[in-house]
From TrEMBL:
It comes from the Eukaryota. It catalyses: 2 a phenolic donor + H2O2 = 2 a phenolic radical donor + 2 H2O. Its cofactor is heme b; Ca(2+). This is Peroxidase. It holds the Pfam family peroxidase. Its main location: secreted. Belongs to the peroxidase family. Ascorbate peroxidase subfamily. Belongs to the peroxidase family. Classical plant (class III) peroxidase subfamily. The keyword Cytoplasm does not apply. Residues 1-19 form the signal peptide.
């Protein structure tokens, strides 16, 4: 009952009429669509709680390139490189979960549910399983027909807050949206190569205890594991909550961009508000995820509904 009440409240506050996407888009054409995706996510989450971070990253990397069109799911071939070949996407994972959901959907509702919608729904379900909010996902996206590694230009962990905000603003995101979405770092890990410079320089903005811990992790690099990882949230690394904001307020941000959020004039108030109010973060995170999922979507007859998320459909006339 509590889940239903929370869901209804979120439906009231979320902007559902976004670019003609709508919650329940498949209610007639594929009534079990969302439950099929949810089943696949639950099965994977039961054995791998890190899948939440993987899906959040996949969703972000998809939406920030050509819009939310599943262009980052396309496999490269000997004749064509895809977004998967771009450096920022080499560590994106979770593709097999999308494949599993797509296979089940094709068996039930052939050529109805887009791969782009599967990513958005699967991410929502994983967030909820990790203790985050359950929010209505407007659906109706279609899949893109282009996947070009040269178009992958994502904000990186070494950017300043001001530099990162330029990338977010170009996608019609506010500074509040940016800080909220970076709160996804409440789950997941970062490779030492992304923050090793801070350790070497004995970055004074990093808590000494954290610096020592990270130094030990990165110092254990070996031939079999040349670039170890550390949790981005040192408090509750598998839970979608506001602990990330509390951590960076204590100078325990692993990556430079995360730590700078707590002190930069554009973002410090938002960080402080989220650290003090878990409910506020949950509400805004749901809203920001819906807004992210609305980025440059294809609808109507644009694009296609892929049969296999890894390859474009055969072109008619060829």
């Amino acid at each position: 009952m509590r889940l239903k009440v929370t869901f209804l409240l979120l439906l009231l506050i979320l902007p559902l009429a976004l670019a003609n996407l709508r919650v329940g888009f498949y209610s007639s054409s594929c009534p079990k669509a969302e439950s099929i995706v949810q089943t696949a996510v639950r099965r994977r989450f039961a054995r791998d709680k890190s899948i939440t971070a993987a899906l959040l990253r996949m969703h972000f990397h998809d939406c920030f390139v050509r819009g939310c069109d599943a262009s980052n799911l396309i496999d490269s071939t000997s004749e064509m490189s895809s977004e998967k070949d771009a450096a920022p996407n080499l560590t994106v994972r979770g593709y097999e979960l999308i494949d599993e959901a797509k296979k089940a959907l094709e068996a039930t509702c052939p050529s109805r549910v887009s791969c782009a919608d599967i990513i958005a729904l699967a991410t929502r379900d994983a967030v909820f399983l990790s203790g985050g909010p359950f929010y209505g996902v407007p659906t109706g996206r279609r899949d893109g027909l282009v996947s070009d590694p040269d178009q992958v230009d994502l904000p990186g962990p070494t950017m300043s807050v001001s530099q990162a905000f330029q990338s977010f603003r170009a996608k019609n995101m506010t500074i509040d949206d940016m800080v909220t979405l970076l709160g996804a770092h409440t789950v997941g890990v970062a490779h030492c190569s992304f923050f090793l410079d801070r350790i070497i320089a004995l970055d004074p903005t990093m808590d000494l205890g954290l610096l020592n811990n990270l130094n030990a992790i990165c110092g254990a690099a070996s031939g079999s594991n040349p670039d170890p990882t550390a949790f981005l949230d040192q408090g509750t690394p598998f839970a979608v909550d506001n602990q990330f904001f509390k951590q960076i307020g204590l100078r325990r941000g692993v990556m430079q961009i995360d730590q700078e959020l707590a002190s930069h004039q554009l973002s410090r108030r938002i960080v402080s508000d989220y650290a003090a109010n878990a409910a506020l973060f949950r509400t805004r995170f749901a809203q920001a995820m819906v807004k992210l999922g609305n980025t440059q979507v294809l609808q109507g007859t644009a694009g296609e509904i892929r049969k296999n998320c890894r390859v474009f459909n055969p072109r008619r006339g060829f």
